[in-house]
Specification:
Elements: E1 4-7, E2 10-13, E3 28-30, E4 40-46, H1 56-69, E5 78-82, H2 86-98, E6 101-107, H3 112-120, E7 124-128, H4 133-147, E8 152-154, H5 161-178, E9 185-189, H6 194-206, E10 211-217, E11 246-250, H7 252-266, H8 272-286, E12 292-298
Parallel strand pairs: 4-12, 5-6, 5-8, 6-7, 9-10, 9-12, 10-11
Antiparallel strand pairs: 1-2, 3-4
């Protein structure tokens, strides 16, 4: 990381050597108005503060760096992967900065904002059948890699261990330090499952008593972008079903309502998966022991969904 200077009594970054160094170190803020539970605190990690605007910067950076180091990614290959939006944006950003070509398979019903961002970074966008969700994008990416194996580096975020390792190394340690080691619950929506698995594994090592709660959509047919209903989807290879102490299911309507509440009552403009995370966190806080410190994250900003009808 860069050196630090002081300004008005606070530490501020002096400057970074590259965009890579701007990834991580995101703020952790409490929810005051929508959390009425006196015996527990609920905190959200603002992942929109990453340079690419989402939590997926962490995994994308780690995946690309590892592939560069072992030669799987080089200038004559195109990075390809399936995404619901945010990882695709992160890949496109890092590939633009490092001089690689990039191809993203994405469901056609992804928001206008996310599709536009991917293209603005110069990546090629392949839109897949919306009815097949992220699984359809995965199958399309695999089809292209199978047809032209020498042309592509398949980043494969759903099965690449660098996904969860990024959170093991960074997200977990940031939460631990930001809470002074008092975190009692880690709760987050399952998508690629990287943030849940990596962060959860490290937090359990630091304190085995920490509770790990996975969040899923309540139905296979849902509107929570980036989330997976694992019973009806292609299960990510990096997922460990034995890690979660508990699983909470959230409806699309609950997630959307909470997303609006976050913006209008907490000043946190988040995407719908962030709303789902907070819905689950608040539900958990009600029945939690005294002095519980519940931590979740807002994966991205609501600016990426302003064109969505809801």
């Amino acid at each position: 990381m860069c050196e630090k200077d002081t300004f008005d009594g606070k530490f501020v970054p002096a400057r970074f050597k590259s965009i890579d160094e701007a990834v991580g170190g995101t703020p952790l803020v409490p929810l005051h108005r929508i959390c009425s539970v006196e015996h527990a605190s609920v905190f959200v990690k603002l992942e929109s503060q990453n340079p690419g605007g989402s939590v997926k910067d962490r995994a994308a950076q780690a995946i690309i760096s590892a592939a560069e180091a072992d030669g799987r990614l080089c200038k004559n290959k195109t990075l390809i992967d399936a995404s619901s939006g945010n990882t695709g944006i992160a890949y496109a950003m890092f590939c633009a900065a490092r001089g690689y070509s990039c191809e993203i398979c994405l469901p056609a019903n992804a928001s206008y904002e996310r599709k536009t961002l991917i293209k603005r970074y110069g990546a090629h966008l392949v839109e897949t059948d919306p009815a097949e969700g992220s699984d359809g994008a995965i199958l399309e990416a695999r089809k292209r890699v199978s047809a032209y194996p020498e042309q592509y580096f398949y980043a494969d975020q759903y099965n690449n261990p660098e996904n969860w390792r990024a959170h093991y190394r960074t997200t977990a340690m940031e939460i631990w330090e930001q809470t002074g080691g008092t975190v009692t619950h880690w709760i987050v929506m399952l998508g690629t499952t990287g943030s849940f698995i990596g962060t959860g594994m490290k937090l359990k090592e630091l304190n085995p008593k920490i509770r790990l709660i996975a969040v899923q959509p309540s139905s296979p047919f849902h509107g929570i972008e980036g989330a997976k209903h694992l019973d009806s989807a292609i299960i990510p290879g990096i997922y460990n079903p034995d890690l979660a102490d508990e699983t909470v299911c959230i409806t699309t309507e609950e997630a959307q309502e909470m997303t609006l509440c976050l913006a209008q009552e907490e000043g946190c403009l988040a995407g719908v998966s962030g709303g789902a995370n907070v819905s689950a966190a608040l539900r958990l806080a009600v029945d939690s022991p005294p002095d519980s410190v519940v931590v979740t994250l807002l994966p991205d900003s609501g600016e990426r969904y302003l064109s969505d009808a809801w």
